[in-house]
Amino acid sequence: IEMAEEDEIVRDLEAQLRQVMPGPESPQVRDSADFGQGDVDDETDAGMDSSPVLSDGESVVNQKEETILEAIFAAAVRQDREPGSFVSHDAVIQELKHRLPDNITAELAEVANAFEQLSSEYVESERISGDQQIRLTNSGQAKVFDQDTGSDVTGGGNEHRWVIRKAYAIFTRLGYITERVKQDGGALPDAVADAPFDFTDVDDDLAPQKKVEKIEEQRERLQEEYPEVWNLSQGNDVSIEAETTTIKTPVRMLTNLKKAMNEGNTCVFVTKEGDEEFTEWAERGEKNIYETKDSD
After folding, report:
1. pTM to 2 decimals?
2. What is the pLDDT of residues 151-169, one digit of tens each?
3. Which of 141, 199, 210, 266 could pair with 206 in a Cys bridge, judged by C-beta atoms 3.0 to 4.6 Å apart?
4. Who contacts 92 (Cβ-Cβ below 8 Å, separation ≥6)?
């Protein structure tokens, strides 16, 4: 009975996805009219933050420690360095611009000056060539990828977090603004990667023809400055799903795919390497999507 119920779920998900999902030979993305991307905070609990306004650097550091640790990690990997490498405060500030919620009114330079409030367990600071720099300790790196799992079982174990950590670094180096998502039992991706900017975001007061011209100008800028982002998702936000154990059955993968498409995102499944063949798990995931028993 349980297997029959699972088969019914798969058939239902396939029917819904078949209406909107291209086949593997013709991957396409939605057109610009469907774009709805924003800062990373829009897709995480940070975007829904209703806490009091934080107007000084020390308050921000105390209340948003996890966000700052993640920004330090992102600043290092964006420069193609090891996650525990020293980075300048300016590089961390650039990452924080996309990650802190709207209730932060403190100047980011003031926030950087308060980095000394961060726990020495997680960070180490040093003045290098006259420039104040900061890096994550091993405990700090672990904190970035432990904090998101919460108490929900979908948070995953060590292998799951390892896959996400690798994906996080890759998407960040490509130019995306990547952020881990705290699992609260809801239908959330493992991580989100936003395009550096929304090329369809233009002034509503512009005349229609001017809007078209501005969008085209910004599209060309995205293609030129971030070619990998354009080639992968054509400016779409990306829902990152780490598949390590659920890949054995199609139900979870199809559910995650449908969830991402409902959000208007490109969905990327990230898998571990196979024991015998490197692409073993990726091929299994592909079959779950395109070669289920009722596929044409």
Report:
1. 0.74
2. 444 445 678 888 999 999 9
3. 210
4. 68, 71, 72, 75, 112, 115, 134
